[in-house]
Amino acid sequence: MNSYQIVGIVLAGGASRRFGEPKALYHIDGRPFFQYSIEALKNTVENITIVSQPELLESIKQQTTYEVIFDVEKFRGFGPLAGIYTCMKKVQSEWYVTLPCDTPFITEEIIIRLLSYTKKYPEQDAFIPKIAGKNQPLIAVYHRRCLPTVEKHLKEHQLKMGALFKVINTKFLDENEFNNFEAFRNINTKKDIAPD
Q1: CATH number at residue 177
Q2: CA pair distance 153, 147, nearest whole angstrom
Q3: What is the per-residue pLDDT for 40?
Q4: From CA 127, how far away is CA 97, in angstroms rounded?
């Protein structure tokens, strides 16, 4: 198994109920959503793994050269925590940068800023931006040290990311650390793509 320093995880397996169709595959300006996350990551990490669901596997594979996997069976349907766990189990790395597939305005600059904290505070387990009063646990960085705790929470059906942050060394990053709030805007409905 290859071992890396920094790996990117694109979480592209959500149900997309409010959106009405799989967000990962929806096109904006000629590209599917998930490719915007790849674009932000590709120059800042050594490896990118896309975690999706079996129904979307072939469609995503046709549009990327990066590896596409789906959650380990015992935790399938357990949300983003399962995606993070699955990638950590499959790909050996010290740090993991997570991005959802529904933030098409995310930028490489945001990833560079996030990763800069791993050098300043290497003892921390997670770096979570807090934008407009809300934690952004899926636009974040996690250390491999988190894996046993993530697994424990999945086994106990504690699936909320907030529960994880209470028991790992989490550094929340103030919104003033970032000068681009738009980059964190996620798309829940088609109206969100071009809001009034």
Answers
A1: 3.90.550.10
A2: 10
A3: 96
A4: 10
